[in-house]
Design brief:
With 165 residues, this protein is mainly beta. 10% of the residues lie in helices and 53% in strands. The chain has a single domain (2-164), classed as Porin (Beta Barrel), CATH 2.40.160.20. Residues 1-18 form the signal peptide.
Length: 165
């Protein structure tokens, strides 16, 4: 029940305000609920437009709800947190879809792995919309990760909103 309440709270907070990718000089700030095996939490990211279809940025995530291990231990802060730098190819206009839709595949380099992500945003107006993103590791720094080392080192699903800065 506590996990469901936490997730609903995060989603309610996340659906606040969003914006479309406008190209070079555009800055966006995403707030999302992070859902993965053995935990759920909050994720924030920011992206800076370098060109019409290219952006770079950073992501931070923190798992709020984490399962205990078999011995009843809970993970510490370092096990729950993750930081990443990212590169996106914003392809909404390349695919010639509605201007309210942005599709962005990308790569990220984090504290736990080198990975990839695929996201989509839908904008109700220039300043409000929703986003969803999946991410997965391509190369793990610890291929034989055990216990809490597996947190933030697996497939993730994020849903939330973006803010135009």
């Amino acid at each position: 029940m506590r996990k469901i309440f936490t997730l609903l709270t995060m989603l309610t907070i996340s659906f606040a305000n969003a914006q479309a990718f406008n190209g070079k000089g555009d800055t966006k700030f995403d707030v999302a609920a992070n859902i993965q095996e053995h935990g759920s939490g909050i994720r924030v990211s920011t992206d800076f437009g370098l060109g019409e279809n290219i952006s770079v940025g950073a992501t931070a995530s923190y798992l709020l709800s984490v399962d205990k291990d078999g011995l009843g231990n809970k993970p510490d802060f370092g096990d729950r947190a993750d930081l990443k730098v990212r590169f996106n190819a914003n392809l909404g206009n390349v695919f010639n879809v509605d201007e309210k839709v942005d599709i962005y595949p990308g790569l990220d380099l984090g504290l736990r792995n080198f990975g990839a992500h695929l996201g989509v945003r839908y904008f109700f107006t220039d300043g409000f919309g929703i986003m969803s993103e999946i991410g997965f590791p391509i190369a793990k720094y610890k291929p034989e990760a055990t216990g809490f080392e597996r947190l933030n080192n697996q497939f993730t699903f994020n849903i939330g909103a973006s803010f135009n800065l």
